[in-house]
Write a structure and sequence with these properties.
Blueprint (H helix, E strand, L loop, with lengths): L4 E4 L3 H13 L8 E4 L4 H7 L1 H4 L3 E2 L9 H10 L10 H12 L1
Parallel strand pairs: 1-2, 2-3
Amino acid sequence: LRAKGIVILNAGLDLSNALKQANEFKISAGGQAVSVFGMTINSIAAMGLDVAKGLQFTDPWYWDRTEETRAWANRFMPRYNNQPPTHIMAANYGAMMHY
């Protein structure tokens, strides 16, 4: 009996290494879902699309989801090397504006 999916609960370099190993062993290509929790979109860019192919992850906020999030991201990106903001950055901004 095989598991239908694998959830990886690492962060940082450990997460990147685990995903690279999952890609190397062709876990997703073999029909098992690979999922992570709390990953940022920037991590995908850092590890490469070949490693992230087929990956499932949760993201509590996405910069390109609505007109409002896109407008905020467009104001944010020029100050951050034209990189899209993560949910962590948006949460910090929201907390400071609320304060």
